[in-house]
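User: Please predict structures.

Assistant: First:
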Amino acid sequence: MILQASILTSLRQGFYKPSMLARHRYVLSKALTTQGKPTEGTLRPAFELALRASCLQLVLARWGLETAAALGVQGEKVANDDDRKARAVDAITKAAFAGGLDDYLTEQEKYVLEKAYKTWEYDDFELGSHWESLGILQWLLGRQHKVPPYYSSFDRASIFQATGVMPADPSTIDTFVNSYLSPQSHHLLDDASLKREIDIAEAWNWRARAQVIMDLRDQIIEEAKEKSGSAKSSDIADEETIVDRMMREKRIPQSLRGMVKNISQVMKSATSRAIEKEIIKEAIDDDFGIVVELKPEEMPEGASPSDREVLIPYSKLEGKNHESLRKISEARLFAFAWSTSKIEEWDIGKMVEILSINPVSSIWAPDEE
């Protein structure tokens, strides 16, 4: 494999040479991919998913070190901690290129891996959103038994242990990827299971985006209350009229106004359809149900530990939690979109652009006869 000249000086000097297994994998994988591009809607070859998962795992390992540094987290021996972590950063970079991933890393991933320790900038930390994407790739590869609910994350320790990839040992990348490289290797995942998880991802991604519309409507009504000097909706003019007028004042596009005005009815219908189609398991108050764990001080007097988990409507979460759930749904749907060739390149900038993988989003798709 010919490494690009833009990589670290040590790479250019030949210190980080790809292993023989990595060279063999590169030649074989190129031969396999020349058999034709995957058809949209079908899974890419398993080895491609494994290569992408390996890239993400190393980038996220680096992300963890940079995040700890940015937060000021230090080990017990503070004086030696920076040196130890700098060596860990070097080991991650070495593994990425000596492990033969140079041709599979994105330009952004190469860029951040090449940076010196503790020099990451704000935009670089956005790569941390790929934790949930890595979880999906591992589920597709059979390394995760299930996809967690869309109001909780994959267990990060489990994600790192599942592949057996160790950043300090490039040969572990060979072991992981080569287990999926045989031309006879195939996915154990059945089409029905894949379709169901894609349907679920689409539904929760739709719900996250709908919350933005709901928040906009609430903001418009709140501003109307402030202008009128009233704290009650009933004390101001017809709510729909107010929403209409203020949307015109804010120059909100005509195509969006109907959605803002009717979001409550749309949400009721979407929730009903999602339950009927068994895309979501629980609903409450005409909204997607979210299971939350109460803090000890929030527990009713005399309640048992089993009562700590309660079901609440999605809309009742705090804004920061809405943001967290949106990121979970976007990252998972993004991984499904790439894995099924809905999108060709792994480009984090495309994450927010993906609305659905099915021709029509799962909630609104016609019922199958």
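Second:
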Amino acid sequence: MIVLFADVMFTGLPNDAGEWGKMILFGLLVVLFCSLISLASLKMSFKRNKDILDD
């Protein structure tokens, strides 16, 4: 949400459907990227905690 707000602040509101589509796609890509980073971090943390409990 913050990324979309920043995008609108710097580029202005989209004028036509193509620009709206680009902005929505950009937002979805940012959300997907952040989700993948969070998932990778969660997996590493789970593995580390599991190793600690196994000892």
